[in-house]
Every structure is written in structure tokens, then in C-alpha cells.
Specification:
CATH superfamily: PCu(A)C copper chaperone
Order of helices and strands: HEEEEEEEEEE
Radius of gyration: 18 Å
Distance between the termini: 41 Å
CATH class: Mainly Beta
Largest sheet: 10 strands, mixed
Number of helices: 1
CATH architecture: Sandwich
Helix content: 10-25%
Bound molecules: copper (II) ion
Number of domains: 1
Number of strands: 10
Strand content: over 45%
């Protein structure tokens, strides 16, 4: 009766150990995903910016070789209507993280040069204050 349970516990412990090395000490973008969309269309990218560094950084711009433009946006709800507004930047305080998620901050990707299907990886470059940049790939997911 106990043996299967024990085996699973040991495996789970082993997996956890393998997946959690020391947390990254540098600025990173995690859990990035993009909504599937057709070529020529607009889509949104969501992610979490984590800044474990001692100084704050500010996301100032983004781009993708697969799209004409990528801008920073914020979704607001006003009088029951949902609006999107461009934002200039997204500061990330030292030791803090900033979430880009549905209903809030997002990267607005316009003029897709190709179709984004579930399973694709959308390449992105994030630009930060001080001339830093971060390359990443957002996993394309179908919302349905
Ligand atoms: Cu938007």
C-alpha cells in the first residue's frame, strides 16, 4: 500500500531539486506568452519582469523581428468599457517584479509579418534604461 506513494514522493522531490537552482540574480523576463493571431493582425504579449538587482530598471521599448511594432500598453476599465492606452515605460524597482497580464499591462504587437499559431515562439527584444536589452521568446498560445 505504501510503496507507490513513497515512490511518487521521491520522484517529486527529485524533480523539485532539479528544477530549482539558485534564483537568477539578474533582470529577467519570465512566463512570456503571446496570443495566437493571423498575419497582419495585432496581438498581445504577457510576461513577468523580475529585477533581483540592487538598482531599479525601466522598460522603455520593445520590438520583434516578426512584427512592425511593439508598444507598451495598459488596459483600463472605465464606466464598464475596456480601453487600452499606450504607456511610456514600466519601471521595476530593485528586488521587485512587474506583471504584464490580461486586463493590465501588456506588450501590444502590431503588424504581424506572419501567422502566430499555438506552439510558435515569438522572438522579442526588450529595451531598458541605461541601454540594456533582453532577448526572449514568448510561447504562442491559443486562447480557446
Ligand atoms: Cu493593447
Amino acid at each position: 500500500m505504501f510503496r507507490p506513494f513513497l515512490l511518487i514522493s521521491v520522484l517529486a522531490a527529485a524533480c523539485t531539486g532539479a528544477e530549482s537552482p539558485a534564483p537568477p540574480a539578474k533582470l529577467s523576463a519570465q512566463d512570456a506568452w503571446a496570443r495566437a493571431a493571423d498575419s497582419g493582425m495585432v496581438t498581445a504579449v504577457y510576461l513577468v519582469l523580475r529585477n533581483p538587482e540592487a538598482a531599479g530598471v525601466t522598460l522603455t521599448a520593445a520590438s520583434s523581428p516578426w512584427a512592425e511594432s511593439v508598444t507598451l500598453h495598459m488596459t483600463h476599465e472605465m464606466n464598464g468599457m475596456v480601453h487600452m492606452m499606450p504607456i511610456d515605460s514600466a519601471p521595476v524597482a530593485p528586488g521587485d517584479s512587474v506583471v504584464f497580464a490580461e486586463g493590465g499591462r501588456h506588450l501590444m504587437v502590431s503588424g504581424l509579418r506572419r501567422k502566430l499559431a499555438a506552439g510558435d515562439s515569438l522572438p522579442l527584444v526588450l529595451e531598458f534604461s541605461g541601454g540594456r536589452s533582453l532577448e526572449l521568446k514568448a510561447a504562442v498560445r491559443s486562447p480557446y
